């Protein structure tokens, strides 16, 4: 059973209290400080409209190490042709809006509620949430967003309106994260798509050890738009 938490106390239960699905707690809020605390402990919110806030910490955990990203031959050719223009942190609100509205195969509705969108926009304004955008002929056709604390990046969602747009945006973001010495990209749960890009499942205990080390390395919050 998930542990009920109060919005009055900024705390989470021990990760070992999560059930087999990874569900750890219910309740609380999506304040800036609670979200930062959650991610720093390997916890993330995931719930649908009309439900209370649900907090998760699955075991095992899907991650991608920046230096282990797999680039297929076909993707290399697409990147080489430079069909897409990729930017960082230039259209965060448009990216999260598209992530929420773009239909997904086998899914009805979205977990990115208005409350969630507003919370992550606040994180972005505070310098802790970042997006990568793929443009084609001046139009936003793909992208992704996530949270960054220390040298860890926590991927949240991606979308595309043109085939391979989000993959190209992801490739460029991972290149940046690698050059900035980020240690881990948290992909949270398994997907075939992320596995094809080099994602792997590791025990939660191992993930937490890596995360704790990544958080010890300071990376000042702020916009990544002009960061080299």
Biggest sheet character: 7 strands, mixed
CATH-defined fold name of the largest domain: Aminopeptidase
User: How are the strands ordered across the major sheet?
Assistant: 6-7-8-9-10-5-11
Number of strands: 11
What is the string of helix and strand elements? EEHEEEHEHHEEEHEHEH
Helix-and-strand structural type? alpha+beta
Poorly predicted regions are none
Tell me the β content: 25-35%
End-to-end separation in angstroms reads 46 Å
**Averaging pLDDT over every residue, what do you get?**
94
* Rough outline: globular
CATH class category label of the largest domain = Alpha Beta
Helix count, DSSP H or I runs of 4 or more residues: 7
Residues in helices, as a percent range = 25-40%
Describe this structure in words.
- Helices cover 32% and strands 25% of the residues.
- It has 228 residues and is of the alpha+beta class.
- The strands form 2 sheets. The chain has a 7-stranded mixed sheet with strand order 6-7-8-9-10-5-11, with helices on both faces. Strands 1-2-4-3 form a 4-stranded mixed sheet, covered by helices on one side.
- α3 runs antiparallel to α4 (114-125).
- The radius of gyration is 17 Å and the shape is globular.
- The model has no long low-confidence stretch (mean pLDDT 94).
List the helices and strands and how they pair.
Elements: E1 3-5, E2 23-27, H1 32-40, E3 44-45, E4 54-56, E5 61-64, H2 73-81, E6 85-88, H3 92-101, H4 114-125, E7 129-136, E8 139-149, E9 152-160, H5 165-179, E10 184-188, H6 192-196, E11 200-202, H7 204-215
Parallel strand pairs: 1-2, 9-10
Antiparallel strand pairs: 2-4, 3-4, 5-10, 5-11, 6-7, 7-8, 8-9
Helix pairs in contact: 3-4
